[in-house]
Write a structure and sequence with these properties.
By secondary structure, this protein is an alpha+beta fold. It has 2 domains: about 110 residues, Rossmann fold; about 90 residues, Winged helix-like DNA-binding domain superfamily/Winged helix DNA-binding domain (Arc Repressor Mutant, subunit A, Orthogonal Bundle), CATH 1.10.10. The protein contains 9 helices and 10 strands. The strands form 3 sheets. The chain has a 4-stranded antiparallel β-sheet, covered by helices on one side. Strands 1-2-3 form a 3-stranded parallel β-sheet, sandwiched between helices. A hairpin with a 2-residue loop joins strand 4 and strand 5. The protein is globular, with a radius of gyration of 17 Å. The chain starts with 5 loop residues before the first helix and ends with a strand. The mean pLDDT is about 90. The structure holds calcium ion (CA).
């Protein structure tokens, strides 16, 4: 839990512990980065406004670092500003909540993200697509021999595409599959993440086709 407002941090940790999690708080950005990189936790709750290094910058750095790239991140923002949400998601947060939020809602998000992370672990399927390999048991994507680092959401999105090659997937379908039915985001979230996939994996720029006003399709004519 990265949060400089002591009351909020204490309250959330109280809830986390009551749910059976081990939780720790850090109150500033620099300490948070050092702590997370030293021993990556299963999940990070990250406040946007922090002294020193802010939440967006922390998010960006965690995503760049191989050992923390897949750690689920829930971003807390006080602004409720659409731009911040989009920026947060673009930098790799998996979910976000706007303050004031209910601790119960946060616990529900924590559970959902951890459940998803766990569910992806034991599935030992490898999917091959041209020179691209997605290994869900290792949460790894290889483009030839080069490893591609994806956020949890980008990974989920890619997996959805690979499992439905040649089929048109609507934005709503992708939003429900990858983010879950109770995710309050908009279909714009899907667009942002598809753009990231296309940027990170150049072959997808051509192979993921935009179906105007509907969604996307991964071509099956490799
Ligand atoms: Ca704060």
């Amino acid at each position: 839990m990265v949060e400089d407002e002591r009351d909020i941090a204490t309250l959330i940790v109280h809830y986390l512990v009551r749910e059976g999690y081990r939780a720790e708080t850090v109150a500033d950005g620099r300490t948070a980065l050092a702590r997370i990189e030293k021993s990556p936790p299963d999940l990070v709750i990250l406040d946007l406004m922090l002294p020193g290094v802010d939440g967006l910058e922390i998010c960006r750095r965690l995503r760049r670092n191989e050992s923390t790239a897949a750690v689920p991140i829930i971003m807390l923002t006080a602004k409720g500003d659409e731009t911040d949400k989009i920026v947060g998601l673009e930098l790799g947060a998996d979910d976000y909540l706007t303050k004031p939020f209910s601790p119960k809602e946060l616990m529900a998000r924590v559970k959902a993200l951890l459940r998803r992370a766990k569910r992806e672990e034991p599935a030992e399927t490898k999917i091959q697509y041209g020179r691209l390999t997605l290994d869900s048991s290792r949460h790894q994507v290889m483009d030839g021999r080069k490893e591609i680092h994806l956020t949890a959401k980008e990974f989920g999105l890619l997996e959805s595409f690979l499992r439905s090659q040649g089929r048109v997937l609507t934005r709503d379908h992708l939003l429900n599959t990858v983010w879950g039915y109770d995710f309050p985001g908009t279909t714009r979230t899907v667009d942002v993440h598809v753009r990231h996939l296309r940027e990170k994996i150049p072959m997808l720029a051509e192979m993921i086709v935009t179906i105007k006003n509907i969604g996307y399709k991964l071509r099956d004519d490799l």
